[in-house]
Amino acid sequence: MNILVLNCGSSSLKFQLIDSESENVLAKGICERIGIDGRISYAPYNSDKETVFKDMPTHTEAIQYVLDALMNEKSGVIKSLKEVGAVGHRVVHGGEKFTSSVIIDEEVKAAIEECNDLAPLHNPANLLGINACQKLMPDVPMAAVFDTAFHQTMPPKAYMYGLPYEYYEKYRLRRYGFHGTSHSYVSKRAAQLLGKPYDELKTIVCHLGNGASLSAVKYGKCVDTSMGLTPLEGLIMGTRCGDIDPSIIEFIANKENMGISEVMTVLNKESGVYGMSKRLSSDFRDLWKAEEEGNRYAAIALETFCYNVSKYIGSYAAAMNGVDDIVFTAGVGENDFRVREGICGNIEYLGIKFDKEANKVRGEEAVISMPDSKVKLLVIPTNEELAIARETVALISGHSA
Ligand code: AMP
């Protein structure tokens, strides 16, 4: 069965058509500048990417162009919509309501809307995508796969903030965590690669991309994660600040004569390794190049990033009273051997024997610890689209993924 996986943002929409039996990607692409002017990039599996400019006032036109591209006589990969068995939608925030993926119906859509306050930029866009799809493909079943669901197994001691309890009661203000599909996929894959039962392992997943988060997965369940109510908390990221003293917000507002939302823009978009490197770049490739050329701000940003991840790993080993394996994934985690080396050089006390040679891999599955290392280190490319496709198939066929 073919599954259309959709990840809708407010002005963009990423898509993949996946054959669930072979797990091959039949075609993929992105619509950008929805509501502004519009362009669609489309790549079937056997050919290069093509970009065309199209008017896309709303997500409905964008999704119609996706379907047209998939069914195009020359470059399409299917003949009719009957060949789309289901649609899997990535939904960012499921609040406390959704502890797993669900088939979308009116009640589910209303519940997703109730979580809009928790993810004001993302959930409304996800709903736009769902509504547009339902309009264009009314008979195709659809699933919502939530970024937060995997973390819903966290105990209160991991998700409660040290704030007055009534904020939790009134607003469900707590830690939720994100990148759940990736943390789930990668921790399961690590167990497969190690040949160990998932529910017997203590795994730390380091999802290090432009957005970055860690999770502690104990015996197959997430027990802690670094992102919070929003993706701003936790690690220093590409442009997000991660953990800071909350008083800094008032301090910057006063000194720079800014309102709260302006300060929030600084913390989300102008901080992280980008801000620390004096706005040089949020891309780690640029930062390493600058560091080699003697740029001390890039050097400090990179060193701080690695130190920060090492400290989180130490705290998650403590949270689980031990660790069996540590997995690196996402753009930086999969590709950047120097970042992995920087992080692992600081955590030998856990029983890690880092293999410098094996660590030279990029973008492929590998074990990067010595054979006699007590704690195993792995690189596993994440595949959130495949995970969403698997969840969708499992839901519509009535099994758990
Ligand atoms: P993601 O958010 O997972 O797509 O990761 C994107 C980030 O991965 C980019 O901003 C880069 O910082 C990083 N990245 C991608 N490729 C490489 C590479 N070859 N070496 C170092 N960092 C990389």
How does the SSE layout of this entry go?
Layout: E1 2-8, E2 13-19, E3 24-32, E4 39-44, E5 50-53, H1 59-71, E6 86-91, E7 102-103, H2 106-114, H3 123-136, E8 142-146, H4 156-159, H5 165-171, H6 180-194, E9 202-208, E10 212-218, E11 221-225, H7 247-256, H8 260-269, H9 272-276, H10 284-292, H11 296-319, E12 325-329, H12 330-335, H13 337-344, E13 366-367, E14 376-379, H14 384-396
Parallel strand pairs: 1-6, 6-8, 9-12, 12-14
Antiparallel strand pairs: 1-2, 2-3, 3-4, 4-5, 7-8, 9-10, 10-11, 13-14
Helix pairs in contact: 1-3, 7-8, 10-11, 11-13
The structure holds adenosine monophosphate (AMP).
Adenosine monophosphate (AMP) binds next to helix 10 and helix 12.
Short description:
This protein has 401 residues and is of the alpha/beta class. It is built from 14 helices and 14 strands.
Kindly list the characteristics that best describe this protein.
401 residues, alpha/beta, Nucleotidyltransferase, domain 5, 2 domains, eight-stranded mixed sheet, six-stranded mixed sheet, 14 strands, binds adenosine monophosphate
